[in-house]
Amino acid sequence: MNIKQQLEQYNPYNAQEEKDLEMILRYMDTFDNLFTRENEFAHFTASAWLVNEDHTKVLMAYHNIYDSWSWVGGHADGATDLLHVALKEAKEETGLTKVKPVSDQIFSIEILGVPAHEKKGKHIATHVHLNITYLIEASESDLIRVKPDENSDIGWFELDRAIEASTEPEMKVVYRKLNEKLVGQTFK
User: Fold this and answer.
1) 3-class DSSP state for residue 120?
2) What residues make up the domain containing 86?
3) pLDDT in tens, 5-61
4) Which residues sit opposite 110 in a β-bridge?
């Protein structure tokens, strides 16, 4: 099933997801380059809400650009299998070698505003990420390491502490939603 079909079948968790889903589907009908950064206004990203085996902690990275504790994830960069992107980014940004999806279904969706910034000496204009989040699991006992070009620290946080650790008010709202969904769902 392709990402558009997955999104069409996705059951929004709240009003934010309902509106974001409507807009993402509209963008998909309007633009043909949402999977690359060639679309400088809006493009797909995939994130991992990276939890331990008993789903009581989340692994966060201290993100260099945003100067905040954050989830892990990245740009689709042409890939349309966003679960694969989330798994790849989880490994690359944390050093973990064993990560697995709790489910292959979309866990959450968000349209995220990205302020203008510098990256690798290049100005990046304000834009939005059409973000698809997956629930990914890893063992707390596995070795983790920073990815110096993206983050300066990695650590496991209890669910409430993950929200507190973020200094981005708009992301606290997202992380709170992810934790609510995590606690409220049963996974097979």
Assistant:
1) coil
2) 3-184
3) 999 999 999 999 999 999 999 999 999 899 999 998 999 999 999 999 999 999 999
4) 131
Residue 6 is encoded by which pair of tokens? 């997955």
H-only helix segments in the chain: 3-9, 15-30, 82-94, 159-165, 169-184
Q: What is the CATH number of the domain that holds 165?
A: 3.90.79.10
* 44 secondary structure, DSSP code: E
Query: Given pLDDT bands bounded at 50, 70 and 90, which one contains residue 117?
Result: confident
133, 86 contact by CB (below 8 A): yes
Q: How many domains does the chain have?
A: 1
Token couple for 72: 């892990």
Find all residues with CB under 8 Å of 33, minimum gap 6, and list them: 39, 43
Q: Give the CA angle between residues 161, 164, 169 to the nearest 5°.
A: 145
Which residues pair with residue 133 across a beta bridge?
47, 108
